[in-house]
Amino acid sequence: MLNTSQENLDWAELVTLDLSKYPTPGGKQELAESLIKTLWEKGFFYVKNFNISQEAVNRQFAIGRQFYKLPVEEKLRYVPEGLDQGQFNGYVPAGRRILDTETGIKDRVEIYKISKFNGDFKHNHPQLIRNNIEEIEQFARLLHSEVLDPLHTLLAIALELPEDFFRNTHKHEVKSEDHLRYMKYTKFTPEENAAIGNNWIHGHTDLGSFTLLFRQPVAALQIRDPIHNEWKWVKPQDATLTVNACDAISFLTGGYVRSTIHRVVAPPKDQQHVDRLGLLYFSRSPPPLTCHMTTIQKLGTKNKGFTQNVFEQTGNPVPTVEAWTFTKQKWQCTKGVRTEDQEYCTVQILPGFHEQIYM
Question: What residue ranges carry the coiled-coil annotation (predicted)?
Answer without folding.
Answer: none
